[in-house]
Amino acid sequence: MHPSHLPDPEATITLAEVTKRFGARVALDGVSLSVARGQVLGLLGPNGAGKTTIIDLAAGLSRPSAGEVLLNGAVLPFPFPPSARRRIGLVPQHTALYDELSAAANLRFAADLFAVASPKRRVAEVLDLIGLGDRAGDRVSTLSGGMQRRLAFGRALVHDPDVLILDEPTLGVDIENRHAIWAHVRRLRRDGKTVLLSTNYLDEAEALCDHVVALRAGRQIAAGPTAELLRVAGRRVEVDCAEDAVPAVRRSLDGLGTGARLEVHDGGMTVHLPTDCPVDAVAAAALCADGVRNVRVRAPDMVEVLEALSAGGHG
Predict the structure, then answer these.
(1) Taking the model in full, what pTM does it have?
(2) What stretch of H or E contains 300?
(3) What is the DSSP letter of 37?
(4) Residue 49 carries which DSSP code?
(5) Are strands 261-265 and 268-272 parallel, antiparallel or unpaired?
(6) 3-class DSSP state for residue 100?
(7) How far apart are CA 193 and CA 164, in angstroms?
(8) DSSP state letters, 112-161
(9) Measured between alpha carbons, how far is 204 from 179 in angstroms, rounded to an integer?
(10) Peptide bond before 46: cis, by omega within 30 degrees of 0?
(11) 226-279 pLDDT, tens digit each
(12) Going from the N-terminus, what domains does the chain have, and what CATH number goes with each?
């Protein structure tokens, strides 16, 4: 194993130079990552990047083709032993709940699988924690999609694991349920749990993750503190103005000396900002120019961030 990829002795869960092949297809190519206790590590990338493959490997649902999965510095065999499984809680991308059982019965089944002490009391605690105490006796099929996602989250918590592995936990849920799940993740961090989270959403990574690993086509293209990596693509200011107002906007922005790149198009212009540029000052200067109707600040999207990370050689 290369010295730079040696497991972090402080990490709870580690993937060390892990490759996963499905026949001739390489789904994951030599990825290494470590998640420390009390840390939320995000896996960031589009569909097909390798996020779910990492989730399956870390949760013991799949065997690596090469490399190792470790828990507290110890290499885990495949399948994971029961002692390791008890320390891990998984929220899969698909809820995989029993539709015709009640919310409480789904959690009770999970509690029995893990031999939870006082299962009735623990199930009640978790239902209250996820805000479904009043729906305990309702069949899962009668719950909204967002409630089902929260129930899947509760199922992962019922045996009080040290490590939570979350595969796109807010996929397809409304804003209220999304924020409820975010609150649970933040609570896990405060409680000293280890969280590995995959997401397609930049705002989710920014809101929840201490560090991120950016992936593209099964390869790790960058890793580091979330704020640092998400800032790499910069922001842009969209200026709504008539064509004859463009020179005035240019003069206003030239006076700031930001080095911004201006792109003129029908209906106005787009100002592409360097990562360290004061975006509010740029927006205010553009708005003050004669003939400007409106300005909007836009954050980069996933594609722009991944392109910037690929070009920048972070990692």
Answers:
(1) 0.82
(2) none
(3) T
(4) S
(5) antiparallel
(6) coil
(7) 7
(8) HHTT-SSHHHHHHHHHHHTT-GGGTTSBGGGS-HHHHHHHHHHHHHTT--
(9) 10
(10) no
(11) 988 877 777 788 889 888 888 888 888 887 777 777 788 888 888 877 766 777
(12) 3-87+161-225 (3.40.50.300), 101-156 (no CATH), 236-299 (3.30.70.260)
- 8 Å CB contact between 62 and 56: yes
Residue 148, token pair as written in the block: 């089902």
End-to-end, the C-alpha distance of the chain in Å comes to 18
Structure tokens belonging to residue 55: 């989730």
Q: Residue 205: which H helix or E strand, with range?
A: helix 202-208
Look up residue 238 and give its amino acid. E
Query: What type of residue sits at position 193?
Result: K
Burial of 104 (0-12, 13-18, 19+ CB in 10 A): buried
- How many residues would you count in the chain? 315
Tokens for 91, please give them. 């929220």
- Three-state SS string over 224-281 comes to EEHHHHHCCCCCEEEEEECHHHHHHHHHHHHCCCCCCEEEEECCEEEEECCCCCCHHH
* Tokens at 128, concatenated: 């209250």
C-beta separation of 43 from 35 below 8 A: no
CA distance 49 to 139: 35
C-alpha–C-alpha distance, residues 89 and 105, integer Å: 18
Main-chain dihedrals φ then ψ at residue 241, nearest 5 degrees: -155, 160
Give the position of tokens 């990692």: 315
Could you give the CA distance from residue 196 to residue 54 in angstroms, rounded to a whole number? 10
- CA dist 9 and 18 (Å) reads 18
Q: Measure the CA–CA gap between 235 and 157, rounded to whole angstroms.
A: 38
Token reading at 164: 């939570």
pLDDT per residue over 167-225, tens digit each? 999 988 889 989 999 999 999 999 999 999 999 888 899 999 999 999 999 999 999 99
Q: Comparing C-alpha atoms, which of 186, 220, 213 is closest to residue 34?
A: 213
